[in-house]
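To assess whether ligand presence alters the predicted conformation, the chain was also submitted together with UFG. Input:
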Amino acid sequence: MESILVAGGAGYVGSHACKALAAAGYRPVTLDNLVTGHADAVKWGPLVEADIADVETVRRIAREYEITTAMHFAARSLVGESVSKPDLYYENNVVGTLRLVEALSAEGLKHLVFSSTAAVYGAAEGELIAEDTPARPINPYGETKLAIERALGWIGPAKGFSWCALRYFNAAGADPDGEIGERHDPETHLIPNLVRATLGAGPGLKVFGDDYPTPDGSCVRDYVHVVDLVEAHIKALDWLKAGGASRPFNLGTGKGLSVLEVIAAAERALGRRPPYEIVGRRAGDPPRLVADPAAAMAAFGWTPTRSDPDTLVASVAAFEAASAA
Ligand code: UFG
């Protein structure tokens, strides 16, 4: 059985990737410092508790498990926090990743799938955002992810590994079996906050702005189910192994949903009226971010199948109920 190093395998997307890797016949070896990850989310392979910047440990586990392929999810990922603590973001996301790549490539890395983000596009305008839209991040989080994408463009060929940077739009949803889900502290994301508010397990939802230049005035995003996302990672891995070119790919559905449309989906899926109030805009929120996912669809035949809002909301509600039980 081939082992795949999963940096950040105790986190939200990383833990779902471990489950998908195990189902695809791989052994996911999680490397996580557990600063934001959860040890109990690592269920499908070993957990090595260490930082991605710990070159000695990374080299040791790469040798022990004969790692030639890695997925890298380990990052600080809150936009607001990145503005107040940019040094932390550069340290973890840039310096940490360079150390990880140095250690893995010293032990024979061949393929790397890197978690990137739509935040690289900043406040890009236009109906759909394709990969050739100029990358102009508007916060340190997006800057640090773009810095690594660009570094990989040079380091990959120099060290002899191929890579994909997967630019997630809005990752959402939870494992349909309720085994793992999104557990950020504090939780800033729309869908978990909406579901908790609707189920009475959290405060009423604050909708950040209804005066955007969008059809109903609330922000439009492209929500993609975490299980669809991790499926794309497995396909990206196959693509790299088959000799596919190193490059970024958008992961989104191509369909935008406004905050008010997601609230309406919660009412349908949960049969209760979500309590919410409209408040002022949140700093740094672009009005609309919707992916053109054609490149990933064409290159590795990826089609999101679980990313409609009712399925997203229902999966989060099921996970919340399972965690509360
Ligand atoms: N929103 C609310 N109320 C909330 C939370 C969110 O109205 O309590 C709104 C936001 O204003 C935004 C939308 O819901 O319009 C989605 O917000 P999220 O916080 O769920 O997600 P973001 O779009 O802010 O962030 C996501 C990823 C980031 C990534 C960013 C790219 O989580 O990692 O997209 O722009 F950087």
